[in-house]
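Tutorial sheet, problem 5. The two components below are modelled jointly, 740 residues in total.
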Amino acid sequence: MKILCSKSELTAGLNIVSKAVPSKTTMSILECILIDCTDGNIKLIANDMDFGIETVIKGKILEKGVVAYDANILVNLIRSLPDNDVTIETDADYNTSITCEKINFNKILSRSGEEFSYLPKVDMNNPVVLSKLTLKDVVRQTIFSISDNEANKMMGGELFEINGDNLRVVSLDGHRISIRNIKMNKAYNSIKVIIPGKTLNEISKIISGNDDDNVDIYFDSNHVLFKFDNTTVVSRLIEGDYFKIDQMLSNDYQTKININKKELLNCISRATLLIKEGDKKPVILNINDNKIDLNINSVVGSMNESIDIEKEGKDLMIGFNPKFLIDALRVIDDESINIYLVNAKAPCFIRDDEGSYIYLVLPVNFTTAN
Amino acid sequence: MKILCSKSELTAGLNIVSKAVPSKTTMSILECILIDCTDGNIKLIANDMDFGIETVIKGKILEKGVVAYDANILVNLIRSLPDNDVTIETDADYNTSITCEKINFNKILSRSGEEFSYLPKVDMNNPVVLSKLTLKDVVRQTIFSISDNEANKMMGGELFEINGDNLRVVSLDGHRISIRNIKMNKAYNSIKVIIPGKTLNEISKIISGNDDDNVDIYFDSNHVLFKFDNTTVVSRLIEGDYFKIDQMLSNDYQTKININKKELLNCISRATLLIKEGDKKPVILNINDNKIDLNINSVVGSMNESIDIEKEGKDLMIGFNPKFLIDALRVIDDESINIYLVNAKAPCFIRDDEGSYIYLVLPVNFTTAN
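Model answer (structure tokens):
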């Protein structure tokens, strides 16, 4: 095999497919990036079996072939070259040379692509179309409440549920639920799948969020395929029926407050400075007339701060794991938010009137004597 | 004790003295920052016994006193506050409250300053004066070749040697020597001391290198004191006679080459990509007429690259630890450099005609058959 590409094309392509190279594996073929130029395109492919990426780069094919290269070595060597044309040539014994200007790397380890697993085939009809920005945003706004729960794999993924022109993305970890609703440009057939969190994290890193380009998303019973630019990402889905979310949601409340998001976020972040890692101290919210007193006590010291609010309904004292509130507040873009509460043992809901987001957080017990 | 300071003054001062708080220690008092405002100034002090920093910040003293605070907690709490006035108040039982706007931290742990060690006294006469930029530069240009050699503590420091108006700074680790000579604005009494590398690293971080301000440096038999802005840094010196450097230097050579520094640096950096950590593969320089062929062989593959040079004297093939060449080349600002060589077993010298720098690097054995 022999190809000629610009360093920048190679680097861009390698950076994308590297995301599917596992950092630790016992199967050395998974640590490889395959270059396949048998069909007239220069395809770079990596696949960790759960999750695979293929991207096509520009360049000249001087001799067709398929070769697998150690991902780390290939990426580092190419990155070190000057910004010019690069020739990669592998002979029949899988000795590779990489040449650029007066630089020659020789006898670089490479291997046949025989053991390499190509991406699974997914039927590519009727894509669901999202802008790159929307996809990145919705992942960022929900991914923090997935959970690495070995006993319940579904918590490690996110529900993508399409009804008509509405996409609902849900994640939960047993202490909280994050929900985002997105209006799409047209209606689609109903879809309900669980996409692994790892896939969504890696997709977010690969797609650049600045542009208005779209991502085409295809589903079959076992896989999801994302197609954008010259890149294809395929991931297996998580099997099973997702949690019955709607039973956990409620519109009843006894207390509704409206509060400046940034003030609340800064205050809770400050409070966590008094907590050492692993120490489960709640932040206590004392909702009283038109202010909240926030309070935290730990071995290091205590903090209190009060924030002005608008309130409807009853006064209430309630405790939360501060991290859970922080995670939700960080991804809400609204300047002021509504929080709905029932009592000190029921979940609170942070949600907007349009229903574009719902963040449910369970409270924690606290002793007022603390 | 009760003081009122702006958050920015406090943060700036704490950032400086924090550099003398050890990350690991069994003596909890060393993890503290002392605030001492008994003499009308607000002094922040930290001292890890080898190395101490004192800085004076602006603010109002509402009640005089001396209190020691856990450095980590104090720094994090102050950093979390809004950009406004901060009151720190500690009562007779060493309960501290920190107040800013509507935020109250209470019952923060603090302790008496009784166990705290103040900076050692150093006689402050006849300072050696260097610009901040010069001091930072000379440390950066030499610090990489100190060594953590338990058996020979002197390798962990740098020689600062003053003769007349010349300052010579030297570091060595048994494989290489780095020397910088600096012309100062006036002549001083002769001084020859070994300053710990850690001290020089921390000083470099504290002084901002952008401005032309000076640092006054005072020496006594056991300590060095750096004075700049409102800050005083005192460090113990390393005891003993430094290595006899001049015996190791020589102006004889058989081969002299002039080469573009950046080309050589980039080439050697690329070559190191083929070396796994801990693998001691030399880069081989084959000096031949008006070019160098650089060559490296490893289990991963091999590289060769040729660079045009100007040469005087004999052709030569010589091997080096690539890291040692890279370290020296990185801190030389000249566009083209001269390298002086004798034979494959003698050190090479990278030095300029003015004698402002000399980098000596020992070669390593290599088998041409490799």
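Marking note: Helices of chain B lie at 7-17, 71-79, 132-140, 197-206, 261-272, 322-330. Full credit if you identified this.
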